[in-house]
Amino acid sequence: MNASADEREPATDGRFLPLVLRMVVPEKKSLRAARLRREASNCVALAVSTSQTAFAADLIDEALKLAKRSQEMGADER
User: Which of 3, 6, 25, 41 shows the greatest Cβ crowding within 10 Å of its Cβ?
Assistant: First the structure.
């Protein structure tokens, strides 16, 4: 497709207008949900690496609570 010279010219008196793109800023709710999901992942990683059974169980319980809350807030994206 070849554009004519008129189509390639800027719209106003020889100067180009700046192109401003809308920044996508995640909502606070989705940021918090993502942070909760990350914390749940950290709890599981710690639980797997520890040799103390009771401590690991507590971490897994906490991870489940955090993951559930994260899903309620809508952080299914990874």
Answer: 41
Q: Tell me the pTM.
A: 0.60
Cα angle: 15, vertex 16, 20; to 5 degrees = 145
71 domain-assigned: yes
Is residue 11 a part of any domain in this protein? no
Number of structural domains (the chain) is 1
For residue 14, is it left (φ>0), alpha (ψ between -120 and 50) or beta?
A: left
CA angle 62, 31, 72 (to 5 degrees): 55
Q: Tell me: the pLDDT tens digits for 48-77? A: 999 999 999 999 999 999 999 999 887 444
